[in-house]
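SAMPLE LOG
Freezer: B-3
Tube label: C17
Construct: single chain, 236 aa
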Amino acid sequence: MKKALILICALIAMPMFYANVSAQDDEDRLIIAGSSDGKVALEFGTHMGWGYNIVKTNDFKPSGSGEFFINILKLNIYPVDFFGIELGIDYKTIDFVSKEDAFYYDGYDSNKIAKVMPYSQKHPGELTKNFSRLRTNTFSAPLMVKFSADKFKVGAGVEGNLNLTGRIKDKYFQDGKKVKNIDKGIQFNRYSYNFVGGIAYDGTGLYVKYYPKSSKLMPEGGLDVNFTTIGVIFDF
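STRUCTURE (predicted):
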């Protein structure tokens, strides 16, 4: 995690070394490099978003699960004004929250991937008044095809995810005693993917992401989840 934070800080500081950063057609765009005609541009920190996860699983009852992401870099390639391809690098966190069960960290499998399951499956009936949050930290690379008309934009594509270490935070009562537990540095599946689409007007929009079970966000034999995220996105 420390290496990830160092990388983020370095990327934030990088544009400060570019004395000739130009805004071209839009003064609010921080363009690091690009073509003179504006059809190709490498931009820094263009957007951020929040979403709510609609989780489908038989393993636990989700409560308030969601995601947050912020863009680090984005490469725009627009051969014509109304059509383009965008490739980005985002930092993203995904949370799964349950108020009826605790997420149980059961060590690592033979591939050094964390085994996570509901505590009730391991020790049924032992816990009461549970609160549990599982968080993954991720670098994602969305590849989008976008169409634009005036201030409207519509896009769809796929995201590849490099999953960093995550953590599990549990609060529950066991034998009448309040227990708090945090497991950090948990390694989930290293790579996963999801589909994404959205529509925006004048820098504000709605997006949808779909994470199928086959995306392998969670390891085999652990939490069996697929989910859809619906959220809002804002350009800087």
